[in-house]
Write a structure and sequence with these properties.
By secondary structure, the chain is an alpha+beta fold. It has one domain. The protein contains three helices and three strands. It is globular.
Length: 58
Amino acid sequence: MADVKFITTKDVCELFSVSRETVRKWTNSKILKKYKIGGSVFYRKDEVINALKPVENE
């Protein structure tokens, strides 16, 4: 786990250009998994990137 990079909720918002509310909904829907240290919330960057799903052309 030494190479794991953790990012903040703000970082996730900036990465996808979404609001904190959207990140909260993704977390509550189990799309993203959060990690807490004290009162601070973090996300594993690799898990956030892996949550992306390819979209097939319709």
